[in-house]
Design a protein that fits this description.
The chain is α/β, with parallel strands linked by helices. The protein has helices spanning about 60-65, 75-80, 90-95, 110-120, 135-150, 165-180, and strands at about 1-5, 25, 45-50, 65-70, 100-105, 125, 155-160, 185-190, 190-195, 205, 210-220, 225-230, 240, 250-255, 260-265, 265-275. Strand 7, helix 6 and strand 8 form a beta-alpha-beta unit. The longest helix is centred in the middle third of the chain and has 13 residues, at about 135-150. Pfam families: TPK_B1_binding (PF04265), TPK_catalytic (PF04263).
């Protein structure tokens, strides 16, 4: 969960750098069975499902999200794999219960039977095969922003299936969160999550120790990282410069309930997700 010191304004999120603002607070409460109701203004969650194996906590994320969008072959995953989470239920009932609001992408991965099934249930089918310059995740993020953000400024996008599989796909998905720096987008797998910490804010990360950690990392992305200072880690940084070919803070350990990060450059924050 991510809360801004002040509400984001409606506008063009892609590529927009915010002026220096107050602290940004982060918490992975979307991994908890119940969302807290006494910790500031509520967030609106949107879930994007990409074409990789569904994490074990997918039904939980689905329940927390207000809208569900499958990126092309992600619909195959929902159709094939979600019934496996409910072995005692009729698969057809589960498929009807977990119906995506929309399927969007270049439609090169989704099976015909899956497409026909969800079309019959009223799912919006948005063919973007004419656009080969953006990834399916990018297309889905842009769609969700247009659909929800004007009415829900406290929006956070969760993306499953964004990690694992082909490395170029992973890097393309990481590029998406860098192209929308002012929109909280969290990439999730069974093992970890990744999100962008923009340099326009100081960051306070509330660790949900029952579901995440202790392993974590801070990764400079795109360019050499400016000076970074942290608290709450086993190996804290003190005005430390990071870059590929030099120091990168991987395999660090969370030691406190709150981790703070101040950096002159954008960083990726990653933390492990605990197995049940």
């Amino acid at each position: 969960m991510i809360r801004l010191g002040r509400k984001s304004r409606r506008g063009d999120f892609e590529g927009r750098k915010l002026a220096k603002m107050g602290p940004m607070s982060h918490s992975s409460t979307f991994l908890l069975p119940n969302l807290p109701t006494d910790n500031g203004p509520a967030l609106t969650y949107a879930l994007v499902i990409l074409n990789q194996r569904l994490p074990r906590f997918t039904p939980l994320l689905w329940e927390h999200a207000q809208v569900h969008v499958c990126a092309d072959g992600g619909a195959n995953r929902v159709f094939d794999e979600l019934p496996c989470f409910f072995p005692h239920d009729d698969p057809s009932d589960i498929r009807k219960r977990y119906k995506p609001y929309a399927i969007k992408g270049d439609m090169d991965s989704i099976r015909t039977d899956v497409l026909d099934f969800y079309r019959g249930l009223g799912t919006k089918i948005i063919d973007e095969s004419h656009d080969q310059d953006t990834t399916d995740l990018h297309k889905c993020v842009a769609y969700i922003l247009e659909l929800l953000n004007p009415e829900h400024p406290n929006l956070c996008i969760l993306a499953t299936g964004a990690l694992g599989g082909r490395f170029d796909h992973e890097m393309g998905n990481i590029n998406v969160i860098c192209r929308f720096p002012s929109m909280p987008i969290i990439l999730l797998s069974d093992d970890c999550l990744i999100q962008l910490l923009p340099s326009t804010h100081h960051h306070k990360i509330h660790i949900q120790s029952s579901v995440e950690g202790p392993h974590c990392g801070l990764i400079p992305i795109g360019t050499a990282g400016g000076r970074t200072t942290t608290t709450g880690l086993k190996w804290n940084l003190d005005k430390t410069e990071m870059r590929f070919g030099g120091l990168v803070s991987t395999s660090n350990i969370v030691k406190e309930n709150i981790v703070t990060v101040q950096s002159e450059s954008d960083l990726l924050w990653t933390i492990s997700i605990k197995k049940e």
